[in-house]
Amino acid sequence: MAEPKNESMFPKLDAAQIARLEPFGKRRRVDAGETLFEIGQQHLGVFVLIEGNIEIFSPSGTVVTVHEPGEFTGEINLLSGRPSVVSARCAEPTTVIEIDPANLRRIIQTDPELSEMLLRAYVLRRAYLVANSVGDVVLAGSSHSADTLRLKGFLTRNGYPFTYLDVERDAGIQELFDHFQVGVADIPVLICGNRYVLRNPTNAEVARCLSFNTEIDHGTVYDIVIVGAGPSGLAAAVYAASEGLNVVVLESCAPGGQAGSSSRIENYLGFPTGVSGQELADRALVQSQKFGAQVNIAAPAIGLKCAKEPFAVNLASGEHVHSRSIIIATGAAYRKLALPNLAQFEGVGVYYGATHVEAQLCQDEEIAIVGGGNSAGQAAVFLSTRAKHVHLLVRGPGLSETMSRYLIRRIEESPAITLWARTEIEGLEGNGQLQHLRWRSQDGAAEIHDIRHLFLMTGANPNTAWLKGCLALDGKQFVKAGMDLTPEDLETAKWPLQRPPYLLETSLPRVFAVGDVRSGSVKRVASAVGEGSICVQLVHRVLAE
Ligand SMILES: Cc1cc2nc3c(=O)[nH]c(=O)nc-3n(C[C@H](O)[C@H](O)[C@H](O)COP(=O)(O)OP(=O)(O)OC[C@H]3O[C@@H](n4cnc5c(N)ncnc54)[C@H](O)[C@@H]3O)c2cc1C
Description:
Blueprint: H1 15-21, E1 26-30, E2 35-37, E3 46-51, E4 54-57, E5 63-67, H2 77-80, E6 87-89, E7 94-99, H3 101-110, H4 112-131, E8 137-141, H5 146-157, E9 163-166, H6 171-179, E10 189-192, E11 196-199, H7 203-209, E12 221-227, H8 231-242, E13 247-250, H9 277-290, E14 294-296, E15 301-305, E16 311-315, E17 320-328, E18 332-334, H10 342-345, E19 350-351, H11 356-361, E20 366-370, H12 374-383, E21 389-393, H13 405-413, E22 417-420, E23 423-430, E24 434-441, E25 446-449, E26 453-456, E27 460-462, H14 487-492, E28 511-513, H15 525-544
Parallel strand pairs: 8-9, 12-13, 12-17, 13-14, 17-28, 19-26, 20-21, 20-26, 21-22
Antiparallel strand pairs: 1-7, 2-6, 3-7, 4-5, 4-6, 8-10, 10-11, 15-16, 16-17, 18-27, 23-24, 24-25
Helix pairs in contact: 3-4, 8-9, 8-15, 12-13
């Protein structure tokens, strides 16, 4: 592997910076050949190299880099306490300053110059590891398997490096599967930490195997539990943790929510050339962890015990998290088309997100997208750079009522995109994998197209089923909050306080709703982030009551 010595990824600390770090750590000598840390070791601190060198090895034993005096070890998982995906050894007698995780966090929070240097290097190093598949996870699957796509998406969206082996491209993998009696239902197989073999694991099993989460203390009553780590939940986590509140975030899949499935967000303030949803989510996650938020992945809330305080959020594992206040940031999930065999093709031809993972599957193929909103428009523009041709299908007469002007213009100008107005999908056909689409334009005959990839971007329903009767919801099951709660809502909910609900507060005191899950919300990244941020001020207020 080529040695990636780039100044931002491997900056050198000067004497003054090292002097500022020294009081936070312990200076020590390391013998030649001594291992500083192993692959899989958790809760690592940082080693600042004073003299000698530190070799960093990938799980396959190749040298990733050799640190020189003035450089420091580590990457993003130092902040989350997750296991290391590389090991470190000193080839010659070496002097280091060892700083433990608590002191590392202190430096990041109090020294802006060092904080910026460390965080930039850590984020870039993780991006390098992901791009070069440096890690201890191998995923062996098939492009015809929906669970393979699920796990690829889960690892990618959680920023975890992995090597992918495809049965269709590598005959040796099929032989290996036959040898170990891995049947179709067992695919994909995930080799985790170079040790455990997981056959078609759930996301929660993968998260457990890779130690994604820190144990929740079930005896503690937290200040806030934030349910959902989309833009609104992550914003709330950053503000809550930075203001000293004891906060746990529960996320059923991966940080970023719907925004994480967007290839490019162009209307978010401060990013004139756009930012991918994944990048925005990664940065927000790091930011929340830097302040000490505990973010739990693959940990869906399945119920809320709201009859007495402290509240208890029920987890799928059967455990509860207790809290004095709750922020509901569970957003919305993609709406499905009413086609009888839709489920059969989900993940094997029918997709709800248009990220780089799905784009790879559509290289030089014709694809169809259903939807007239901005998410459909973004997907069309993004996928037209990969696919042979994009067919954009909308039920209405055109896009002007539902899509931003800048996207309409790009679609009109692109020879690789055809807009089909007043058109609806009538059928999906294929055997194991989607092969043909049947659609009908108004007054036209049904047409069959050889299209193997269909993207459904037709809006979303709120993720509120887990709240079961605790809160006032509107007719479409979005959570009502603040001024949207009518006197009848409050009477039905037996609102117990003299004061009316605060902005974003639901019909239950101390429980708030932010972002897309809230009735009447704007359904934009910026507004979700804004609501998550504002909400924390109101949490302070209710906790002081
Ligand atoms: C493809 C696409 C492109 C988009 N592009 C843009 C754009 O360019 N500009 C723009 O401003 N907006 C855009 N949007 C809209 C924007 O992404 C949303 O408005 C925003 O993500 C809403 O944030 P949120 O945090 O409220 O909810 P979400 O993003 O929906 O996040 C909710 C999170 O909660 C989790 N969750 C759900 N239920 C549970 C549970 N029971 N327990 C634990 N976790 C749970 C979900 O897994 C998810 O991560 C786009 C949306 C899509 C789908």
